[in-house]
Write a structure and sequence with these properties.
Layout lengths: L1 H24 L9 H14 L16 H12 L6 H21 L3 H14 L8 H21 L2 H15 L4 H15 L5 H18 L1 H6 L3 H16 L3 H15 L3 H10 L7 H19 L9 H17 L9 H28 L1 H8 L3 E4 L5 H6 L2 E2 L8 H6 L3 H10 L4 E5 L10 H10 E7 L13 E6 L1
Parallel strand pairs: 1-2, 1-3
Antiparallel strand pairs: 3-5, 4-5
Helix pairs in contact: 1-16, 2-3, 4-5, 4-6, 5-15, 5-16, 6-7, 6-8, 6-14, 7-8, 7-9, 8-14, 12-14, 13-15, 14-15, 20-21
Length: about 475
């Protein structure tokens, strides 16, 4: 009986290892698995190549440091397929090393737990969380050490890093600000230490926005005005927020067996400072994911990563006696790996339709107007946009009912090329008046679609038109 159990255990480990290997491998079959990741380097290109501040070149609603980091990454990392998965792996390893060093855990075991959380939270997709999470952990560790050793420079540095994290993703502010306030209001740190952290944050923000201040002419105000206008329309409706809340709750359920142990035997307010701040990191990350208003799976990494680190500490303290409590997570991760493998293989098949080299050859350095089509082609083909609002669907969000009028205003300026969904006029993803204008003034020069299913509303199906 014992030998049978041992054999089953070894087979399960081997199966999970093989599944994990193929899961990771599929992220290297195509240039990306998350659309957002391909968009960030485009705005970075405007900053570094053309010296244009956001958002005069291309618009997006996220803070601009994310575009700086992603563009630099695309320039130093030579591999196209799996580029953002590699960034995620670098991020995960850095989190594992920081955490294992501070919390005295085994590095490989830490990496294993992070991998489970990464699978559930789509970490390898390479969205902004891969930058945000290591920065949040580094701030927490600096604050811990600053409190324990009364080193004011660490508080100052934590403030600077907090400013950087917030300007990669604003949700970082929902996590770090309450933690810093807790240290002050809970009298864990002194007034001087708190003010040093605030001063670091202010100096960090000043340095970050210095290019806008030097440029003048209302550049900084325009930067925030565009974000504010877009986010007013982008914020989730009440039904979407309820859906997001339900999804977050669903993703927390597999963690509950370990969370009950953690919060049941630890004094969250007065216990060990590192463990206390880890608990707060998890709690405020759950709040941040809910406040996002959108049920995108990559947001769930925000709380899944600290949640898995909590599971790791519970498992370590119990000497492995609570391993059975991790079974829901293991099974869920295995299911998502199978689902992810299928999704990534389908992404590879869709990517083969685009032929970015051919599109780049046709377009050259001329500008292309995107009408609610695949914006990733601009990244893959290094194309130039005609309209600063490029991301698929953003013009519809930004201008609302006037979106068709905005497209017509662009078309009247006679852009050399137009990119549209292949079946956009049939499936009504493009307004009829826009379709009529393109039909009268442009002719197709390249099409990407599957012949057996041409009218499917597939994001990778597109038509490229050239002006008559």
């Amino acid at each position: 009986m014992i030998k049978c159990k041992l054999l089953i255990r070894k087979f399960s480990i081997l199966l999970m290892f093989a599944l994990s290997f193929f899961y990771v491998l599929t992220f290297f079959l195509s240039p990306f698995t998350d659309w957002d990741s391909t968009f960030y380097p485009l705005i970075g290109k405007g900053i570094f190549r053309y010296h244009i501040l956001p958002y005069d070149y291309i618009f997006d609603h996220k803070p601009y440091l994310v575009y700086v980091f992603y563009y630099i990454w695309t320039q130093v990392e030579p591999i196209l397929n799996g580029r953002f998965a590699i960034l995620a792996m670098v991020s995960m390893v850095s989190v594992a090393f920081m955490f294992s060093s501070a919390y005295r855990t085994d590095k490989w075991q830490t990496l294993f737990y992070l991998s489970i959380g990464g699978i559930i939270g789509d970490y390898l997709g390479g969205n902004t969380e891969v930058l945000q999470i290591p920065l949040e952990l580094s701030v927490i560790l600096m604050l811990c050490k600053g409190v324990q050793e009364h080193k004011i420079p660490l508080f100052f540095l934590a403030g600077i890093v907090s400013a950087i994290a917030v300007n990669i993703n604003y949700l970082a502010g929902c996590v770090l600000s309450p933690i810093i306030l807790y240290l002050f209001l809970g009298r864990v740190c002194t007034v001087v230490e708190f003010l040093a952290c605030v001063a670091g944050g202010m100096i960090g923000l000043t340095g970050i926005f210095l290019p806008f201040l030097i440029a003048g002419h209302g550049k900084l105000a325009a930067y925030f005005d565009m974000q504010h206008h877009f986010l007013q329309h982008y914020g989730g409706a009440s039904d979407e927020r309820m859906y997001t809340f339900a999804l977050v709750a669903l993703y927390i359920v597999p963690l509950c067996p370990m969370l009950v142990v953690w919060f049941g035997r630890r004094d969250v307010c007065w216990g060990n400072l590192r463990e206390r701040l880890l608990s707060l990191w998890f709690v405020f990350s759950v709040v941040a994911a809910i406040l996002s208003g959108h049920g995108f799976y990559h947001y769930f990494s925000l709380f899944l990563i600290p949640g898995m680190l909590i599971c790791l500490l519970v498992h370590r303290d119990a000497g492995g006696a609570l391993s059975w409590r991790m079974m829901p997570l293991y099974l869920y991760a295995a299911f998502l790996m199978v689902s992810g493998i299928v999704s990534n293989i389908n992404d590879m098949k869709r990517a083969q339709l685009t032929d970015p080299a051919r599109v780049s050859q046709i377009v050259g350095h001329q500008k292309v107007l995107n009408i609610n089509s695949d914006h990733s082609l601009y990244y893959l083909s290094d194309m130039e946009t005609f309209d600063p609002i490029l991301f698929c669907g953003q013009i519809e969000i930004y201008f609302g009912p006037q979106a068709a009028d905005h497209y017509l205003d662009d078309l009247r300026q006679r852009p050399p090329f137009v990119l549209m969904p292949h079946a956009g006029c049939i499936n009504h993803t493009v307004a009829p008046q826009v379709c009529s204008w393109v039909k009268d003034h442009y002719h197709p020069v390249y099409e990407a679609y599957k012949g057996k299913d041409p009218n499917r509303n597939n994001a990778r199906y597109y038509n490229l038109y050239k002006i008559n």
